[in-house]
Automatic annotation (TrEMBL):
This is EAL domain-containing protein. Residues 23-273 form the EAL domain.
Length: 275
């Protein structure tokens, strides 16, 4: 028992240091990446759950880093949020999505994620108005997806902003429903156009009867409230069938297509037009 008193050992895990360094580097590189167009949307198909017909795409951000390769949004969105580059990132993804979706058929919509930080920190209504004007993309074909966390910190402000966006003609989706606290009060605070059932619920569908009951009730409730219900993360034909029977309207997941780059989207669109 030697060296009592100076025996405090701080365990040092080299992988923690690597994570820390990578994060620091990404935070620095983010600014240039946004300027250089290294961050852009992939598009994941959304289909009518009954007919399988393509109804739209969700734009999902990807970073093609010149040295580190592809980086996913779970890694860089939180960095963008804390370093306040989320406003620029959001502007960048929305602009590109609107430009690229101009080439989609008239009945194909596009959904874009809006982060809490972006929504409460910036003049989002002004930004969206400008982007719609400069790209010419019709507001009626755009959906913005927000998670319930927007309603948590400043519910009145959030509802005011969301109503302003709706007045532009845009649809608003409540994303990731079923995670977090999912208080039913969020369904009351705003007239959502769409409800997205989180993948974690869809995952458990086949083997958890309680999960099925919850989904059926949520679908009924949302439908009653005039919302379209989208199921996220549909991977199997079984899940598809169960969700279809539950009355879900739209499905999104690997079963119907992964997020894909814009040139692949054009191939998907050609196929969807084929007889
Ligand atoms: P999200 O909005 O819930 O998007 C759905 C996520 O599930 C996507 O992950 C998508 O690739 C993935 N996914 C879809 N279908 C399946 C499936 O069948 N199986 C599995 N295993 N995964 C599936 P992704 O693209 O990694 O995005 C992660 C999250 O990052 C998104 O979750 C969203 O919250 C955020 N995000 C992505 N792009 C943006 C953006 O442009 N702005 C903001 N603010 N957030 C974004
Ligand atoms: Ca989303
Ligand atoms: Ca989700
Ligand atoms: Ca039903």
């Amino acid at each position: 028992a030697k060296a009592l008193g100076k025996g405090i050992v701080v365990k040092f895990d080299p992988s923690m240091r690597a994570d820390f360094e990578r994060r620091g580097r990404l935070e620095i590189d983010l600014k240039l990446a946004l300027k250089n167009g290294d961050i852009f949307p992939f598009y994941q198909p959304q289909v009518d759950i009954d007919t399988g017909k393509l109804v739209g795409f969700e734009a999902l951000a990807r970073w093609n880093h010149p040295e580190l390769g592809w980086i996913g949004p779970y890694e860089f969105i939180p960095i963008a949020e804390t370093s306040s580059q989320i406003v620029e990132l959001g502007r960048c993804i929305l602009t590109t999505a609107c430009i690229e979706a101009m080439a989609f058929p008239d009945d194909v919509r596009v959904s874009v994620n809006l982060s809490v930080g972006q929504m409460l920190r910036d003049d989002v209504i002004g930004m969206v108005t400008d982007i719609l004007a400069s790209t010419g993309f019709p507001a009626e074909r755009l959906t913005l997806e927000v998670t319930e966390s927007v309603m948590m910190s400043e519910p009145e402000l959030a509802a005011r902003i969301l109503n302003g966006l709706k007045e532009l003609g845009i649809s608003i989706a409540l994303d990731d429903f079923g995670t977090g606290y999912s208080a039913l009060s969020y369904l009351r605070q705003f007239d959502w156009d769409e409800l997205k059932i989180d993948k974690s619920f869809v995952d458990d569908l086949g083997h958890d009867p309680r999960c099925l009951s919850i989904i059926e009730s949520v679908v009924d409730l949302a439908t009653e409230l005039g919302m379209k219900v989208v199921a996220e993360g549909v991977e199997t034909a079984d899940q598809h069938e169960i969700l279809r029977k539950s009355g879900c309207h739209i499905a999104q997941g690997y079963l119907f297509g992964r997020p894909q780059p814009i040139d692949q989207v054009h191939v998907t669109l050609l196929k969807s037009l084929a007889p």
